[in-house]
Amino acid sequence: MRISEKPARESRTGPVERPGLSGPAARKLPVPPRERKPALAALAVLLILGGALATTLLVLRSGDRVSAVRIIEQVGAGEKIPSSALQEVQIAETGIDYVAWRFRDRVLTTYASVTLLPGTLLTENMTSTASEQLGPGKAQVGLALKSGQAPVGLTKGDIVQIIYVPAAGRGTGAATSQQRILAANALVHSVGAPGRTATGLVTVIVDAAVSPTVAQYASSGEIALAVLPGER
């Protein structure tokens, strides 16, 4: 006798339901409808537009450039500004009172109120209509200096002390006791003769009252210069 299991016949009304999840447990949880916030959306749009506008303004401002005067060679304080020291450059508009290139002819009639170094963008307060260093009561004195009588690297525009250094054996007593400062803050007007910058020729500007004394000691080689780095 064979024993076999026959598959259950499907009901005439439809397939037989198999066991499994059904009912409320198989249903999805209800999702609440999204709440629309028009105010936040409007704010986001305004921020995006504001950022785009700011970027556009920065790009436009970066293109606003003006012609200004730049110094390309050193001009000592009190010296008249020469045309060879001026160069036209394009700079961004920053609101600082840089001297515009169109006023370069006026610049040539002014004097440097401070020492102007190469690469400096010229401003109005760097110039003056009169020279305090080369005005009345001042004198230019030429010095022929030997090695050791002036610092290495002395340049036009430096402020120096002019010191009287008596020659050995001059006078009574120790020579160091007779040293004295002839000019406390003299301006170096030029270094070297024209075309011969390696020479020991230095021209200084001093008060007219002490210029004869400076010239006298310079002629006997009893002058030394000391640079004052903090003075310009």
Characterization of the model:
With 232 residues, the chain is of the alpha+beta class. Among the domains are: 64 residues, Type Iii Antifreeze Protein Isoform Hplc 12 (Alpha-Beta Complex); 90 residues, no CATH class. 16% of the residues lie in helices and 24% in strands. It has 3 helices and 9 strands; from the N terminus they run αββαββββββαβ. The longest helix has 25 residues. It starts with 37 loop residues before the first helix and ends in a 5-residue tail after the last strand. Keywords: Membrane, Transmembrane, Transmembrane helix. It comes from Acrocarpospora corrugata.
- Report how far the terminal alpha carbons are from each other: 127 Å
Taken as a percent bin, the fraction of beta residues is 15-25%
Strand pairing plus helix content: what structural class? Answer: alpha+beta
Portion in helices: 10-25%
C-alpha geometry:
elongated
- Overall mean pLDDT stands at 76
Number of strands: 9
Secondary-structure element string: HEEHEEEEEEHE
> Helix count?
3
**Biggest sheet features:** 5 strands, antiparallel
Using only CA atoms, what is the Rg?
43 Å
Poorly predicted runs are none
Oligomeric state of this protein: single chain
Which strand order spans the largest sheet, edge to edge or round the barrel?
Answer: 5-8-7-6-9
